[in-house]
Specification:
The complex is a heterodimer of chains A (about 500) and B (about 150). Chain A is an alpha/beta fold and about 500 residues long. Chain A folds into two domains: about 5-100, Alpha-Beta Plaits, CATH 3.30.70.20; about 170-450, TIM Barrel. In chain A, about 30% of the residues lie in helices and about 15% in strands. Chain A contains 15 helices and 21 strands. Chain A has helices at about 25-30, 60, 85-95, 185-200, 235, 265-270, 290-305, 320-330, 350-355, 360-375, 390-400, 410-415, 435-440, 445-470, 490-500; strands spanning about 15, 35-40, 45-50, 70, 100-105, 120, 140-145, 165-170, 175, 200-205, 220-225, 240-245, 255-260, 280, 310-315, 335-340, 350, 380-385, 405, 485, 500. The longest helix of chain A is centred in the last third of the chain and has 25 residues, at about 445-470. Chain A is globular and about 90 Å long. Chain B has about 150 residues and is an alpha+beta fold. Chain B has two domains: about 5-60 and about 135-145, no CATH class; about 65-125, Alpha-Beta Plaits, CATH 3.30.70.20. Helices cover about 20% and strands about 20% of the residues of chain B. Chain B contains five helices and eight strands; from the N terminus they run βααββαββαββαβ. Chain B has helices at about 20-30, 35-40, 70-75, 100-105, 135-140; strands at about 5-10, 50-55, 55-60, 80, 90, 110-115, 120-125, 145-150. Chain B has a two-stranded antiparallel sheet with strand order 1-8. Chain B has a two-stranded antiparallel sheet with strand order 2-3. In chain B, strand 2 (about 50-55) and strand 3 form a beta hairpin. The chains are: A alpha/beta (about 500), B alpha+beta (about 150). Chains A and B meet through helix 1 of A and helix 1 and helix 2 of B. The complex binds iron/sulfur cluster (4 copies). One iron/sulfur cluster (SF4) binds near residues 23, 25, 63 and 65 of chain A.
Chain lengths: ~500, ~150
Amino acid sequence: MLFKKPQVAFYPFMVLRDDYKCVRCKSCVDQCSFDATYYDEDLNMIMNHHENCVNCKRCEAFCPTDAIKVVKNPSTFHPDANWTPEAIRDIHVQMLTGAIILTSTGNDKPIRNYFDHLLLDACQVTNPPIDPLREPMELKTFIGRKTDALEFDPDGVSIKTTIGKQLELEIPVLFSAMSYGSINLNLQKAMARAAKEFGTYWNTGEGGLHRDLREYKECTIVQVASGRFGVDLEYLETSAAIEIKIGQGAKPGIGGHLPGEKVNEGIAQTRMIPVGSDAISPAPHHDIYSIEDLRQLIYALKEATNYEKPVFVKIAAVHNVAAIACGIAHAGADAVVIDGVRGGTGATPKSLRDHVGIPIELAIAAVDDRLRKEGLRNQVSLIAAGGFRSAVDVLKAVALGADAVYIGTVAKLAAGCTQCQQCHTGRCAWGITTNDPRLAKRLNPDIVAENLYNLLRAWAHDIKELLGAMGINAIESIRGNRLRLRSWGLTEQENKILGVLPAGM
Amino acid sequence: MGKRKLMKVYPIEENCISCRYCEVACTMVHSASKDPVKAYKLEGLLPRATVEVKGAVSLSLMCRHCKHPFCFDSCISGAIQVGEDGKVYLDEERCVGCWNCVLVCPFGAAHPFISDNEKKRHSFKCDLCGDRGFPACVEACPNRALVYDFER
Ligand code: SF4
Ligand code: SF4
Ligand code: SF4
Ligand code: SF4
């Protein structure tokens, strides 16, 4: 291509336009935030710079006459199982830029999804299923430290034991940490509203809590990460729980970097940093180098908030996740959050996103087992995160041993996201992972709050149907109940780790 | 003049994402074919609601059905009338195409139309989808940037 490096011509996507159907409304030109579409006045035609197209499908969705289809470029490299187009393109990018390849969203490699290899049980003849439309079904979930034993008054009736503060969820699903800065306030607003209305929680992520969202205190989990952005006493107190973020599934072991250009007035104020300055989250917390250090931070936060807030600790699922989770339980956390290898992000080096960490299914099973063995399971709740796609995934995770599940990508999808993996560019055409006012207003919090509420409602129905079929009327009864799971197509070793029997046994 | 019981279309600027659905929906429902492609390409129609964009700001503009319509004052042929209901009507058959209304409308909501063969010449503007019952632009808007409501 003229004035371009030759490799630019090998672009992955193409915008096909049925020119007869195009009425020159220029909606596509306006909607494309990647400079891939333009109007040529002399030709009176809509044209494309295919090489810039990221397949976000915004133009396709907004063409009023359905004149556009964005397709994979049919011109590809010689078929080669080893040198895939992705492998070749990555070399081209790195040889031209000399830089790490940045990307976003979650791992897109075909790492085995164990949820797809697990099957649920149902009742037949000898034990009756339950019809969730006729009988009450309980999805209520409590997150927080439970007691070791119950003590009773001498009358033998009243319970003497008191338990610490619990989060009460109407569905074992919470909205995952996504910071203001990585996403915009509109999506945070939508999540906060949906969480409040449905009876669950949303998480601020590491970017602080904007003033406008302080009214959602009761359903807000505030995060304390290595950058400590926006953390002060008021922040900690404006919450239902506090989450210490150690790591994230999409980028275990590294920190974060919100470039200065993105730090506008609102973000700066919320993060408590100057406008235009880089917001850097260091890879480690500089005050945490051991479980004892973690314990200090947990108790500092508890002390600061009068022991009124459960404290969560979030880590990425790495090789020895079970031992680390036990350490976290010992350190006094009320919940441990594990983010698996498919966890999403607003920006990460591709090499980390795709190659670091372990699948969440194995992590849940391993952590639940280990906590039980050490007699710690009642002391911490286990929240799983990273790549959950459906109510069925949630139920399987609960059966494997999770108390609840965090969803992030699903919330983005409900806001229009097409998983184009461009969040890190700040140009999200769907107005999600961008704070450009022109783009951010594409996300109407009223509409998205409704979408999210509907989604939670649908998932609750789904879970109830599945539980009913199993003859169970409360989510509590399936929690860690791996006997109601069977696997297919897995090795003996995998079954052993998951603690499930193969189908047929 | 007291408060009129008139419903009209209100644009909400903060929600407008300049997608132009309102424009195309408008053109389509005012066409004979009721087909957006034919409306533009065979019937040569244009939208009565027009989207104005400047940087991050955009909004859809259409006739405000003003209480004191300048277009009515300026119309030399009697094509523009104010109905009992307060709606401002433009009779395209009676319009002689002097463009007075186009010039005086403070919202730029009246537009000139000249057919390809120059046989037809008249101005046109939002008629609140009179024969349709509900404004097409409001129905089409994907981001709730248009509402059909009583005059405030
Ligand atoms: S959105 Fe569709 S009809 Fe409008 S200019 Fe683009 S291709 Fe043409
Ligand atoms: S809007 Fe998205 S899919 Fe359409 S041309 Fe632009 S980058 Fe490609
Ligand atoms: S949030 Fe936006 S940029 Fe990120 S994957 Fe989804 S559509 Fe693409
Ligand atoms: S349809 Fe709605 S959002 Fe789209 S341009 Fe018109 S008023 Fe704006």
